[in-house]
User: Fold these one by one.
Assistant:
Number 1:
Amino acid sequence: MMSLVKNEWMKIFSKVSTYIFIAFLLLAALGAAVIDYKLSPDETNKDWKQELNADIQEQEKALEAKEISEEEKAAIMEDINYNKQLLADNINPDLNTNWTYMAEWTTTLTSFVTLFVVIVCSSLVSSEFSDGTIKQLLIRPYKRWKILLSKYITSLLFAALLLASLLIFSYLIGIIFFGNGSYSDKIMDPASFEFSPVVVGEYFVDMIVYWIPGFLVITTIAFMLSTLFKNQALAVGISIFILFASSTLNMVIQSFIGKYEWLKFVLFPHLDLRGYISGTIDMFDGATLGFSMGVLGIYYLIFLALTFLFFQKKDITN
Amino acid sequence: MSEAVLKVQSLTKKIGKATIVDNVSFEIKSNEIFGLLGPNGAGKTTIIRMITGLINRTGGTVMINGSDLDHDFEGAMHELGAIVENPEFYKYMTGRKNILHYARMSSNDISNERIEEVIKLVKLDHAIDKKVKTYSLGMRQRLGVAQAILHKPSLLIFDEPTNGLDPQGIREFRDYLKVLASEGVGILISSHLLSEMQLMCDSFAVIEKGKLIHTKEHIVDEKTETINEVSFTVSDGKLAKKILQEQFADITILKNGAKKISVSATKEQTAHINRSFNANDLDVFEIGITRKSLEDKFFEITEQEMRESV
């Protein structure tokens, strides 16, 4: 089995596109750092407490002015409360470290990891059909399921490699641009509309960990399509379509989920588990992390079973 | 006694109601080059794909060097080397990486020396580190032979191996086959190009509409080979005719003239005729023979089948 995985790895890394994908991740991490650097103050503001106090004083002055409406008054009151809470919880709103950079940008750049992994995995089997090499591959002293399993293991290893590359690139670039900040600094939860402070490092780790199950299922879908379709372009195309359509489909499903109970068991609302991190957004009534994980797990097993059964029985006729 | 390296028994493939391959059985021994002949669409490729396990069988068994495809797939595949249709490779990799890929998939360890030896044998040492996409079809065919023989299988299968090869390539390929067969390998070749098969194969089977309609142990049998026409140029045509009619009543005279007479005979018979001509003081200046080609035989067989089925 090791030698089969070695072979698949060799094939992936004999293609120029693989290196382009990895280079792209590096450039994207770099580009994000440059943007972040330009948008935010050069260095983390050390005098943020005084500034916040000054802000509060100004806002209180503004409240005393005569010609303001009730609405404006309420808005200013909210600002004051928010700033006071920042002070009370010791949260620097201008904090800019490698951790805030990663929490803000790396968690978005994971979309590229998904895209590239889908492209590579959806051509892993279908390209053998397109190139005609499948005939030479299957007349070896290995049972078909072993050959397919070696390809699936390779998909997972490749997915892990791209994710690791992104994380390592971001961490290093973050240190270079913003210095090595503290893991336990507090920031406001970007996904929440309420006042909810979170520890930046924990938030970042959660964002990645909660993203992985959906990523694993999408990788497996791409691999399944790669096995079902003999045409590489078709397999890659449909996989990417599903990837992009999934968030739209998710919204459509969410809006009908109250009406039709069974929509709860459709895959799409469960693909992105990151909504469960802060727990502030309800996916739908009765949605829990456990339930979503269960649905994902069942789909995952079905997809894998279909892939292997189909490949085992298939007549190789092209 | 050479063992059968391939034993195919009542091989059948049905798709829906159509029977693509119907109850085909044959055997290939080591040292033998066996040709599977038939027009396009006769079922040759389907037979080969069933033997190599690429498509499922509706019925029948396949034994490769004693290993049953159903019960010991890995053992059977270990004894097999093949090029199924065109020699396809990972074009974005070098020839060497492609060979390494298949070497890793062998169930016995293949040394670097063996890889070098095979590369040299197929005369690719100058191009082995170039990407396969730069290779000509002939070079790909040679790389195909290299991956097939790498693990020293006892059965080689080549499906339409000379498709798209130039005469030089075809000749090279034929020479490889002869060498491999002499080393004890059994070889199965399929083709619709009959004249070519005649030059390559020791024995053959004719497939038509999925059925095996004819097998012949050896195409070239020195003694009994049918010769279409033997023409003797002699000093006296009339005397020759008289001798033939008296001593070889079973031989048909095709043409006769003052100095020439032609008959339908085997090689053995030709030698006997020549001997009795000499014994009767008839000078023989020239013996011309026209061999019945495999193509003629093929048409003879298929036409006969057609007539019988009408």
Note: Chain B has two domains: 4-216, 226-291.
Number 2:
Amino acid sequence: MSDFLVFENVTKRFGPLTAVNNVSLGIKKGEFFSLLGPSGCGKTTLLRMLGGFEMPDSGRIFLDGKDITDLSPNQRRVHTVFQNYALFPTMTIWDNIAFSLKLSKLPKREIEEKVDAILDMIQMREHAWKYPNQLSGGQKQRVAIARALVDRPQVLLLDEPLAALDLKLRQHMLMELDLIHDQVGITFIYVTHDQGEAMSLSDRIAVMNRGKVEQLDQPAQIYEAPVSSFVAAFIGDTNFFAGEIVAAEGDYCTIRCEGLGDIQAFNDRKLAVGQNVHLSVRPEKIHITLNAPQPENGVGVNVFQSTVTDVIYQGVYTKYWIMCGDRSVSALKPHSRFLLDQAPITWNDKVYMWWHPDDGYMIENFSESDAGLVQTPPDAPKEFPGK
Amino acid sequence: MKNRKGFFSEGLLTAPSFLWLALFFAIPTLIVVSFTFHGHTPNGGVAEPYSLETWRALADPDYPSIIWRTLRISVKVTLWCILLSLPCAYAIARMDKRLRAIVAGAIMLPFWTSFVVRVFAWRTMLHPDGWLQACYLSYLRFGEWLFQCMPAFVQHTLTGLGLATSGSLDPAMATMLDSEVAVVLVSVYSFLPFSIMPIYSAAEKFDFSLMEAALDLGANSFYAFRKIFIPCIRQGIISAVLMVFIPAIGSYVIPQMLGGTNCVLIGNKIFMRAIQNRNIPHASALATLMAVSVLVPMAMTVWWRARQKARDLKKADTGLAAHIPGAKA
Amino acid sequence: MKKSFFAPTVLALVLLFLYIPILLVIAYGFSPDGISLRFFDADGNFLGFTVKWYRQLFTGVYSVRSLLDSFWLSLEIAGLATLFSCVIGTTAALALNRWKSRLQSVHYALVYTPLVMPDILIGISLLMLFVACRVECGFWTILIAHITFCVSYVVMTVLARLQDFDRSIVEAAYDLGAGPLYTFFKVELPILMPGIIAGGLLAFTLSIDDVVITAFVNGAGTNTFPTYVSSMVKHSKNLPAVFALSTVMLIATCLLAGLSRTISKRHGT
């Protein structure tokens, strides 16, 4: 199946700043597609070009085989759910939703039916005659989505739609968005800087950085097999271990890491001996135990002695900062049993940290600035002056 | 004890302005209103007995035409000001912040020269031998030519609606100076900044992503301007209407200097009656009438704003109940 | 998005409309023709520019004496009216902001109504009062009239500033041990100052520009600059002097505005 929406070498500059740099993308019909990246990475600009609010400096945009690059926003059947909802404050909810239908000059009966149907879908029928400032954040959000969906656009754009909501509401709306997408079957393009939202909703994610797409893949692929240090560090948290491959046999290789020792890693891409790589190991994949693990089935390698420097209890898990030689490593320990009955690992404990060779992922495309995205242990505060 | 002290300081802070305005604003206004219920004496005084003869005199053929002319000119001036201010305010609000301050300043700057002097400059510009008069004449000639080109029935409809007059143009009668045209033109000139400013300050607070949202949903720019922008800044428009309409009703200097004898408005008549004819009851009656014609639209907006406020309060009430997502679903 | 050109075009034309008379005010000050302000004679010959009106103004020759007198009178009245209305207006704003009694709602109505009344009503009612009390019209009646219509504008400007201002600052001052008078002069007044200055500037411009009210209460022979100029419409041989004086005023105001801007910028307010 050929792609429904295609960006072809799209570039957009704002003065000296290149917001979007030669981006090519294909998005399938009916897909829930996310553009994920830090603020200023160009994801919103890309979305605004699709909505028709910005004109690309070069490149074309095709929707369903037609070139829509030069069409104005009101000529494209692409609707946006704005970050601040942009509900018309002087109109009731009903009139807000009916706005696009009235413009398309449908008969009155049909408009009423469609608006009522979508009000039922978002369960807001009884609020139809209220004004936007009478609604709560979640309700406004639903109205904004309904308003954009009611005349069945070809693509629905969502620009950080959950950013203004509090955590509980955000989780609730996340599920609702997923259900709405399943129901209407329209292509959704979702812009966010929140990896959690992108992961839980999307069929595919494009991770963007500095105007370029770093990786385009399914959520699990992006998390488990990041193509660059940026993707590894931006999505979730990780630990980087730099080193050189000193031996490679079969599916595994040995990396010599300065200050730590030799590390075994899965080598599916058959990297050659002598190559410099960075191994990314996610904190939840690192185990810490008071006793050395029993060697069996891949366990027993990558075991390093270390000292606990900080313990942050989070309920579901505990986050540990441990010193291994002169490097700080973060590890997550989930609590599957009643914690108070156990003797938990605590400050200054000598522990063994270890991980399975399959759980590290080797990254060739490393940039020192991306290492800054990785969490670091907190610094101790300066002394209080009156003490 | 504390209460009495609070009352004392409240009195101390309130007294200067309260007494001043009571003495020099409220009482004189009441004097004026009371004079309207007296007749006038031939030597310029106010007759002792109460009578309604002054109010009856307002029906005399001279006054209604002046009152009607004042209202008509004020409405025209207000409409022109609002019509010009809307695109101006929109354009300024869309500029970036630094340019915005400069342009807003540039609009107020002409007001640092004396109002009378500016009206005087207009008087010189509108001189019958001047270039503006020449432009105006050719505009009228063009209109006349256009009228001649139209089929007879259109001509009749236009004349019937009062939008055109039949008969050829007399250049001697079509001078701008000392006519209603000059008064309207210069009034628009004088009051325009006062209508741009309130509309602009409302437009500055307007969220322009609403315009994007409207375009996104298929509206064109003009539709979005009409259906979204104008309703959202209606408070500013109402302030602007008042800012123009009130001084236009009370206009004195502009018709005095540019209207000649053809365009006498209520303000001029009040002055004439009070100072020249020494007919104080008539001047008072006209002044009272003017006050009423200003206070009526004023009261209407106050009432309208109170209703809006009440509606907003009600909104806040129901807004709380609806805070839990999908609670009633 | 494609930019719309309609609104910016209207704005440009409106600015042109607003500025043409100002440019003419400046130009007329150099006109050699004292009566009809022409630059060209009947045959289309250019008559040239002259600075004689400026020379007359600065030397104060007899022919412009009464013009200059009226101008100084205007400045004097505007200055005094500003001073008084700032004091009265600030106390009124403080009272209106602090108390919410029935007295204050009457007070507010009393302050608000003059703002929406046409000038001519204030003029005629004051004239009636002065006539009824048999007061001789002149300098003092003009001053009283000007203070009366300026007060409301000062109150509204200061009140707007007061409503923006966070009461907890005053509470913080009390909390740290300051008394009410000390707090007023050291904390409240400095915060209110920009509002008072803005109100004062507004009062000054309104007062120096007023024709209508002054025309009612000035009595015979006392003319402020605007009433003097409006009386020149029909008979005058030195009209350009008026425009020259206005040009000098315009330049002075621009310089003052620029100066105050740089000062306020340096103080970072």
Note: The first strand of chain A starts at residue 5 and ends at 14.
